[in-house]
């Protein structure tokens, strides 16, 4: 459930490489991106700086201007082609080192703030498949529908890197109205999306979620996770707390989570988790109780 934290609204940011991908898509069409960046109030030097952040509000303006300039309502699918694994910071590389697709998706949920602090991403088990719900992180954050479509397309591409080019999600639901470009969406996503849906959701088939991946490397993935944690701590003083809460929200519906189980999923010792939470002014028990309350309200 999105929060109502006004501070989050003011500070919502997006990884600069996502803005860069949109600029590359525009330039591939022969358009002058510099004028659009200026109108969107985005610094062209900033979007070329690895690890930099751009304001979510400015990024949403850029999407709007880009759609107006190109007349292409499916520009998000096009921009996704310019995203490489390293474009997603350490998260993209850790994805490739994941031992199963389920683990990769859980890693995406845990570290999605690396990509954008303005979007919330939640995994939920739904019958024989896994559901990823994407929505604004706050009721006051405006997320461009094209940005969500770009994210879904990027996720499908990354799944194919792990599972093979034939991989496709079980279903994709989009809140936007049907733009009448069915073939374009089918090619990018692997399925015909359901438009005018109540939520932006992508469903992953359950039959291959736990297949071992040949390139899986738990040690490398754990080290890359630490890089993501350090990066998040520079943009969010409560990053570790948020990571613990994300894990609790994922595992709580299927059992009774403990500090030990959460620590193992974070590749950390229990004392390390306790110390990190204490530094951020909270405790595991406090987060557990808050998460229980939040999930109860959601249900």
Question: Could you describe the 3D structure shown?
Answer:
With 299 residues, the protein is α+β, with helices and mostly antiparallel strands. The chain has 15 helices and six strands. The termini are close together.
Structural class: alpha+beta
* Averaged pLDDT: 89
How would you spell out the order of helices and strands? HEHHHEHHHHEEHEHEHHHHH
Number of strands: 6
Poorly predicted sequence stretches spanning 5 or more consecutive residues: 1-10
In whole angstroms, how far apart are the ends? 10 Å
CA-based shape: globular
Q: How would you summarize the topology of this molecule?
A:
Layout: H1 6-11, E1 13-15, H2 16-28, H3 33-40, H4 44-47, E2 53-55, H5 56-70, H6 75-79, H7 89-96, H8 101-110, E3 119-126, E4 129-136, H9 145-163, E5 171-173, H10 182-189, E6 200-205, H11 218-235, H12 239-251, H13 259-265, H14 270-279, H15 284-298
Antiparallel strand pairs: 1-2, 3-4, 4-6, 5-6
Helix pairs in contact: 3-5, 7-8, 7-11, 12-15
Question: Can you give me a brief rundown of this structure?
Answer:
The protein is α+β, with helices and mostly antiparallel strands and 299 residues long.
């Amino acid at each position: 459930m999105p929060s109502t934290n006004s501070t989050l609204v003011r500070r919502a940011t997006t990884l600069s490489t996502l803005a860069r991908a949109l600029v590359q898509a525009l330039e591939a069409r022969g358009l002058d991106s510099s004028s659009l960046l200026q109108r969107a109030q985005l610094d062209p030097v900033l979007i070329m700086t690895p690890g930099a952040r751009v304001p979510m509000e400015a990024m949403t303006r850029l999407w709007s201007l880009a759609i107006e300039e190109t007349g292409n309502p499916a520009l998000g699918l096009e921009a996704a082609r310019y995203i490489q694994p390293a474009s997603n910071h350490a998260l993209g590389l850790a994805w490739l080192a994941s031992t199963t697709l389920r683990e990769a998706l859980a890693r995406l949920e845990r570290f999605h703030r690396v990509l954008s602090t303005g979007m919330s991403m939640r995994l939920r088990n739904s019958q024989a498949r896994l559901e990823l719900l994407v929505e604004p992180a706050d009721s006051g954050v405006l997320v461009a529908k094209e940005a969500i479509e770009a994210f879904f397309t990027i996720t499908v591409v990354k799944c194919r890197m792990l599972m093979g080019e034939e991989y496709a999600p079980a279903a994709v639901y989009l809140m936007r109205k049907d733009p009448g470009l069915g073939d374009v969406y089918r090619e990018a996503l692997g399925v015909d999306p359901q438009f005018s849906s109540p939520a932006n959701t992508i469903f992953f088939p359950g039959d291959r979620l736990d297949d071992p991946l040949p390139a899986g490397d738990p040690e490398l993935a754990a080290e890359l996770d630490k890089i993501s944690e350090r990066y998040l701590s520079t943009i969010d003083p409560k990053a570790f707390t948020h990571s613990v809460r994300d894990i609790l929200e994922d595992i709580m519906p299927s059992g009774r989570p403990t500090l030990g189980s959460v620590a193992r999923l974070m590749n950390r010792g229990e004392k390390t988790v306790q110390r990190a939470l204490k530094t951020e002014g909270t405790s595991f028990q406090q987060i557990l109780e808050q998460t229980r309350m939040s999930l109860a309200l959601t249900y």
